[in-house]
Amino acid sequence: MGNKMRQFGLIIFGAIAGVMLSLNFSAVANKEVTEVLRPLPVEELRAFTEVFGRIKSDYVEPVEDKKLITEAINGMLTGLDPHSAYLDSDAFKELQIGTQGEFGGLGIEVSMEDGFVKVISPIEDTPAFRAGIKPGDLIIKLDETAVKGLSLTDAIKRMRGKPNTPITLTVLRKGETKPLVFSLIRAVIKIQSVKSKMIEPGYAYIRITQFQEQTGENLVKAIDKLFKESTVPMKGLVLDLRNDPGGLLNGAVAVSAAFLPSNSLVVYTDGRTDDAKMKLKASPEFYLRDTKSDYLKRLPPAIKTVPMITLVNGGSASASEIVAGALQDHKRSVVMGTQTFGKGSVQTILPLGNNTAIKLTTARYYTPNGQSIQAKGITPDILDESAKDETERLRESDLDRHLSNGKPKETKPEAEAAKVEPKPAVKVPKMENGEDKNKKREPPAEFGSSGDLLLTQAMNYFKGGATASDKNSDSAKAVN
Asked: Boundaries of each PDZ domain copy (predicted)?
């Protein structure tokens, strides 16, 4: 028996080594042969094959080789960081559908923590958002199925489904003594990525809820409409990126390019490979996709100089942080709100064949002035002290196995000028007994509405109101 197991182990070892060599060659086919033929970790591979053999021979039920190998690949990736993952054919297809701006499901951005699904942010105008799902909620059951033991991909599959079908989420929420139960109806999630309106004559409001393939073009249409609607010259524009979980990188570059001078540096990436080192600028080659027409040429010239305020919070992540950081570093916009999420890593989709792929973290994002966004986020120029619930919000740095911020980059800033020390914005109203009145506001005001306190503060700033005295305070470089 022992000899058979040893022989079996050697066969499996050879097969695994062959597979790894094949994957290695296919992944780096254009690199030097000496780079490809780095020594394999023999002892670790031997341990792997021994475990594989034991499962095949001793597990209580037969297990297919495909399942074991797939789970091994999945484990390798999920053990790296919260954003690397193996995408089977269904997950790969859903990823592609999601970037189109329409899919079936509940409308929540999630991650995995301690074996449970943790909500990063509900997406506006979706079943999850309307039901009251909040950032930081821990989903422990999907209908009658316990989440513990499911992979993130499996959990997402269960949450997705045909429109108009029900699903029950059981949720643990900080501050609640018992689990909360939410009954939701799945829907076709059609995300309107750009929303806009005139707040009052001369002052425009644009909200970006997610960065999709058409976000840049939709932004141009919104800006053109707003400028035509305004009966007076434009005096100020509010760009709202709160609770924007990110999306496509070219969408973030397009939005930044709409407001920045041509060829300005928007963001750069740094990783181990040459492909991971990029500088993305406000130039058509970095934001156009499958189109020959540069839609940004249709923008009114005044959009490059109209005073701007960008609103952010702990739900502003990834692409929205890139935009906020670029506008801030180039002194194009005042950034107002709370510290952003801190999702500053680059995930590359690497197809493997059979309609599967891996999503692998390959680089970090850096703002034009060389500040890493990862696990830290963007620090607003003006802090919103009224957002007390933001202290409880889940951020990248709270996620298990999150990628570190990385070493500071000693690069020459391409967007010169010191930033302003973050200053308090909206003062928190107090009751006579010292309690926070904001705790009694249920539900919170809709973004962009007349009850939106931070938007009101932005308008006051434009007009030299509530924060006018702050302009005379000493300035110092803020830490991003």
From this structure: 92-160
- How distant is the alpha carbon of residue 301 from its chain centre? 31
pLDDT of amino acid 40? 81
Of 121, 151, 193, 318, which residue is the catalytic one?
Answer: 318
Q: Beta-carbon neighbour count of residue 209 at 10 Å?
A: 25
Task: Using alpha carbons, select from 116, 105, 167 the residue that is nearest to residue 139.
Answer: 116
The model's pTM is 0.75
Q: What is the pLDDT of residues 90-143, one digit of tens each?
A: 778 777 665 555 667 898 888 888 888 989 888 888 899 999 999 889 999 999
Separation of alpha carbons 176 and 44, rounded Å: 45
Which has more confidence, 101 or 242? 242
Q: Is 187 left (phi over 0), alpha (psi -120 to 50) or beta?
A: beta
- What are the Cα distances from residue 154, in Å, to 72, 142, 167? 15, 11, 15
Q: Which of 141, 343, 359, 376 is catalytic?
A: 343
**Whether the Cβ atoms of residue 306 and residue 235 lie closer than 8 Å to each other:** yes
All residues at 6 or more sequence positions from 462 whose CB lies less than 8 Å from its CB, including other chains: 203, 235, 236, 307, 309
Q: Is the model more confident about 390 or about 176?
A: 176
Q: Is 388 a catalytic residue?
A: no
318 as an active site residue: the answer is: yes
The residue annotated as part of the active site, out of 81, 88, 270, 329, is 329
> Domains of the chain, with CATH numbers?
2-63 (no CATH), 102-190 (2.30.42.10), 194-472 (3.90.226.10)
Alpha carbon distance 277, 44 (integer Å)? 31
Active-site residue flag, 84: no
Note whether 339 and 328 are within 8 A (CB): no
Task: List pLDDT tens digits, range 285-294.
Answer: 999 977 668 9
